[in-house]
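Title: Prediction job returns without error message
Component: structure pipeline
Severity: low
Priority: P3
Assignee: unassigned

Description:
Job completed but the reporter wants confirmation the result is attached to the right record. Sequence as submitted:
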Amino acid sequence: MKKLFPIILLLFLLLNCSSDNDSNAPITDNLYFPPTSGDIWETKPMNELGWNENEVQSLLTFLEEKHTKGFIILVNGRIVMENYFNGHTASSPWYWASAGKTLTTATIGIAQEEGLLDIDDKVSDYLGIGWTSAPLEKENLITNKHLLSMTSGLDDSMGNGNNPVELQYLADAGTRWAYHNVFEKLQDVIAEATNQTFDTYFSTTLKNKIGMTGTWIDVDEFNVYWSTTRSMARFGLLCLNKGKWENELVIPEAFMIESISPSQNINNAYGYLWWLNGKANYRLPQTQLQFPGSLIPNAPSDMVCGLGKNDQKLYVIPSKKMVVIRLGEVADGENFALSDFDNQLWEKINAVVE
């Protein structure tokens, strides 16, 4: 009996410690996926997550003051917060801007899985020679992967990048990172590879499978996606689950993981049109400067982002099984991706969730 006593005491202490730490234990709910039609979407009360509800109003006031239209937080796929401001509603569409680049990435991955293209192929294999104004030997260096990683070497100061005159050689592909609208040529690559419009292929293989609504609209020569806030949340949930919607693999898992990993060694905070938090340094659009530290210091280090012009935000946080969406007018000054608003917003979110 004396020999058993230390064992019994140890078991008691372990069980007691486990009970004391329940509030900090990781969320263990199964990932939930809303039906692909209708408005039904399960919710999760904040008090079951141990969140600080006293800080919610401060977050909502901040969002409204910063010209937000739609805001959603999902945890394990369930809606914890869903709020609309400034005349916006759950059924109102809004533009994704460059956060929609991630949709092009996903569609490229699907087409590659179907054997219709390869990201290591030359872009000219699909668009023909002369799709840029670069010398032929330089143009032939540019692959689909270079467009995905923003390392085409084409001059990012030349117009919208939608015609050969604007696509001029500046550096060899793979040697320079620059945020460039030439990525949209990937949509042309998909159209050529699949023998159908990009929109049709995207809708069939991605949009319809996860119940997204929305449409691509030509705005100032850019193909911009518009949808409801919930539709962006659906895509974020798909990416949180590494490309799988319930039991159906939509985006190949290996490609999804590759997409949200550093795509080159010039800007470690950039994957395949995804921004990556928690890296040692980062670069931003319209500059060749390198900045030390994490992209969004207040946000979780494993967060990956779709960042769109004037503060369209798609945040995916695997460690928290969380998706956060913000759509709306510009919070402060005009921007192309990252802004001070990101860090300010995460300070407010942290006050609620932590």
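Comment from assignee: result matches the submitted record. The chain is about 30% helix and 15% strand.
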